[in-house]
Design brief:
about 120 residues; globular; mainly beta
Length: about 120
């Protein structure tokens, strides 16, 4: 599985941005795709994830209501729509995929894309 994240950039606080994760290499049925962020000096943390087959989603509590994850079957792409951005959202954002065996909380993220940098200015 290959994942290609894109869409990062420089945004002013309060703005919006949509990240894309293009997926290739295998059918994604029974797989989950997740978005993670890693701020400088911080550990990588999950932002949101989606079960490709069922559309079930999971969000980090702190981001609920501002971020939306979605998938496009035709384009084999997962999106992360980010609204009302704050400087605290500044980070490298990664997408990852893994088997959706039990729940979105316990996915083993086997495949990772390169990161895309989001910088939110105040």
């Amino acid at each position: 599985v290959q994942l290609q994240a894109s869409g990062g950039g420089l945004v002013q606080a309060g703005g919006s941005l949509r990240l894309s994760c293009a997926i290739s290499g295998r059918a994604m049925s029974n797989y989950a795709v997740g978005w993670f962020h890693q701020a400088p000096g911080q550990k990588r943390e999950v932002v949101a994830s989606i079960n490709w087959s069922t559309g079930t989603t999971y969000y980090a509590d702190s981001l609920k209501g501002r971020f939306t994850i979605s998938r496009d079957y035709a384009k084999n792409t997962v999106y992360l729509q980010m609204n009302n951005l704050t400087p605290e959202d500044t980070a490298v954002y990664y997408c990852a995929a893994g088997p959706a065996i039990v729940s979105l909380v316990t996915v083993r993220w086997d495949y990772w894309g390169q990161g895309t940098l989001l910088t939110v200015s105040s």
